[in-house]
Design goal:
By secondary structure, the protein is mainly beta. A 6-stranded antiparallel beta sheet has the order 1-2-5-4-3-30. A hairpin with a 2-residue loop joins strand 22 and strand 23.
Length: about 425
């Protein structure tokens, strides 16, 4: 595999590395008269900007080293406005190596910095179109925070320490950080939901209320909203979770104005209606026979991915995908992993379980405790193994004995102007000592 690093000077601390099985270097001299420099040198700047706006982020970062004008495009309001209008969407995935839930729940947060020892956290981006891996540095994010959710080019980081939760929204491509006010209720490891549109930001923090130093219960939800119309609600709306629920996944999936998350013991799906500020339960398909169920969003639909293990011979073990129908209560099986592939998958997985994340037409199934993962293209109905990420050995923790891979749907964006809405808030945010 070919690897290269961008070495140009950037206005923020930034590392971008790529490894791809499809990347090749062309050294042949182009003699086509259509590439005559006398023609291309007269190309209007506005047309050039349109071409550059279509470049994927890695190519754009390399192009910035060509000349001063291209270097300054990242700070040009006219180019960024054009970029937001015509730039194609990239349904990528962002992975992190981070401590497991059990590891940092029982960590002593008052041990004087012996908890999180990371010095330069890295994220690993996977491009399912080109089957390529990239590496991003997140060294601007202060220590004591973990990635929780992503939407609209922003990555949400939540504080690890038990108590009122502090949240940071980060755009890793431009190195921006924006703080949200701390939550009102103390929590331990809540589920975080984030959805970012061009004109609004919505955040939901649910469960794991810390009602005493020795008791944790899933009781309530806090929501944050701000939009370009001037309306905002700062953790002002609270809603009680359904009785006997257990949010062990720590994440939410946003589909059609609702946040969804898995409920365990027994399996079901919990849905939070943002507008109504209410929760309700949806029965999961074949709930008694599911293993490692995960909720993903794909092309605007909610999909449940799980292994099915039933002892009866007429229902063989398999991995299946169900889609939630428009009525909001009925599931329909939309795909089943081919039997031969499932046998390979089950042998590698060995009963350790797996996690899933979806974005656009792609779903990634990651085997826990392994660097093996499957990619499923819903549109082409195609399954394939993903090449291992070459950077996993250089993760963001010095001691990775109990670390595992955590994936988020990620849409890279050079411009996220909606983040400026947070500057309108005049609350005295706490300062972070990273």
């Amino acid at each position: 595999m070919d690897t290269f690093n961008t070495s140009m000077s950037l206005p923020f601390s930034y590392t971008f590395t790529i490894t791809s099985s499809s990347y090749t270097t062309c050294t042949n001299t182009i003699s086509n008269p259509w590439m005559d420099s006398r023609i291309w040198s007269k190309l209007p700047q506005r047309l050039l900007d349109r071409v550059i706006a279509f470049l994927p982020p890695p190519a754009f970062c390399r192009a910035r080293s060509v000349c001063k004008r291209w270097y300054g495009l990242l700070f040009s309001s006219s180019f960024l406005e054009l970029y937001m209008q015509i730039s194609p969407r990239h349904h990528w995935f962002l992975f992190f190596k981070h401590k497991t839930l059990k590891s940092y729940i029982y960590r002593n947060n008052t041990s004087g910095g012996n908890g999180d020892n990371r010095t330069n956290c890295e994220g690993y981006i996977f491009d399912p179109y080109d089957i390529a891996w990239y590496r991003l540095s997140f060294n601007l994010v202060p220590s004591g925070f973990s990635p929780a959710s992503s939407s609209g080019g922003l990555v949400c980081w939540v504080s690890d320490e038990a108590g009122a939760k502090n949240l940071i929204l980060c755009n890793p491509l431009v190195g921006s950080l924006s703080q949200l006010p701390p939550t009102l209720r103390p929590r331990l490891f809540p589920s975080i939901g984030l959805t970012v549109s061009p004109t609004s930001i919505d955040v939901a923090v649910a469960g794991d209320d810390l009602i005493s130093p020795y008791a944790v219960k899933s009781l309530s939800t806090e929501s944050f909203h701000i939009d370009a119309g001037g309306f905002y609600s700062i953790w002002g709306s609270t809603s009680s979770l359904p009785r006997l629920c257990s949010l062990e996944s720590g994440r939410m999936v946003y589909v059609d104005a609702k946040f969804y998350c898995m409920n365990y013991s027994p399996f079901s799906v919990l849905a939070y209606d943002i507008a109504e500020n209410t929760w309700f339960k949806i029965q999961a398909p074949m709930r008694r026979f599911l293993r490692s169920p995960s909720l993903v969003e794909s092309k605007g639909k909610l999909i449940l991915v799980a292994a099915v293990e039933k002892s009866k011979l007429n229902v063989p073990k398999s991995s299946r995908l169900w889609g939630l129908q428009a009525c909001g209560t009925t599931w329909v099986e939309i795909e089943r992993m081919p039997l031969q592939l499932y046998m390979q998958f089950a042998e590698v997985e060995g009963g350790d379980g797996f996690d899933c994340v979806g974005n656009g037409e792609f779903i990634v199934i990651m085997i826990r405790g392994s660097d093996k993962a499957l990619l499923f293209d819903i549109c082409r109905k195609r399954w394939q193994w993903i090449p291992p990420c070459p950077y996993l050995r250089s993760g963001c923790y010095n001691n990775e004995e109990d670390a595992e891979l955590h994936g988020l749907a990620y849409e890279p964006r050079l411009a996220t102007p909606v983040i400026s809405l947070l500057d309108q808030l005049t609350l005295p945010f706490p300062s972070f000592n990273g």
